[in-house]
Amino acid sequence: MKNQKQVPFRLTMLFLRVILNVMKKLPVKLIKPTAKPPVRQTEGSVGYDIAACIDDEINILPGETKMIGSGFIIALEPGYAAFLYARSGLGIKQGIIPANCVGVVDSDYRGEVIVGLRNTSQTAFTVKNGDRIAQMVIAKCELPEVAPCNNLDDTSRGDGGFGSTGHKDSN
Fold first, then answer.
1. Which of 51, 56, 62 is nearest to 84 (CA)?
2. What's the CA gap between 110 and 74, in Å, rounded?
3. Where are the domains of the chain?
4. CATH of domain 27-140
5. What is the mean pLDDT of residues 21-48?
6. Residue from 113, 155, 156, 152 nearest 135 by CA
7. I need a surface site. Which of 38, 50, 92, 133 has the fewest CB within 10 A?
8. Strand partners, 69
9. Residue 4 has pLDDT above 80, yes or no
10. How far apart are CA 106 and CA 141, in angstroms?
11. What is the DSSP string of 110-154?
12. Which helix (H) or strand (E) holds 67?
């Protein structure tokens, strides 16, 4: 036992991190003076609030979409993505939602995180610098190799979709 070399703790942790693919830190680079890093508002929050980082107020008219910068860049590890969702209060109470429903930030993207906001309400909405405009959820994503084939396994559902399972509980 005395002749065995001990593997340094840091190397062991790096090896486990690579094997388990666990992302412990989210590198965030603030690129504008008034930028705020993404923040989880409570210990149980899964989403990080994203604040607008803009020079002038932006007015979004009903039915209109505007691109709103965050003033920061993130560096995700391979196999992870950031998903940009509506903040529930903005979406439900104000009708302000991401224009593409859910934004996706890929692990190899190194530009400013930008949220396309769409006004689905009947009244104009003003975004001010520092307003929380979206929430960002980081998730591990499986990236399987695509395997073209001629046949797939049959299921009891088959190709039934878009309401094929009904809309009422069968009990």
1. 51
2. 7
3. 27-140
4. 2.70.40.10
5. 93
6. 113
7. 92
8. 114
9. no
10. 10
11. -S--EEEEEE-SSS-EEE-TT-EEEEEEEEE---PPP---S----
12. strand 65-69
* Beta-bridge partners for 115: 68
List 125's β-bridge partners, or say none.
60
Distances in Å between the alpha carbon of 163 and those of 102, 154, 160, 166, 167? 22, 19, 8, 5, 7
Residue among 85, 48, 51, 90 at smallest CA distance from 70? 51
Contact status, residue 98 vs residue 117, Cβ threshold 8 Å: yes
| pTM for this entry | 0.81
Sign of CA dihedral 130, 115, 113, 17: positive
Query: What region, left, alpha or beta, does residue 166 occupy, with left being phi > 0 and alpha being psi -120 to 50 degrees?
Result: left
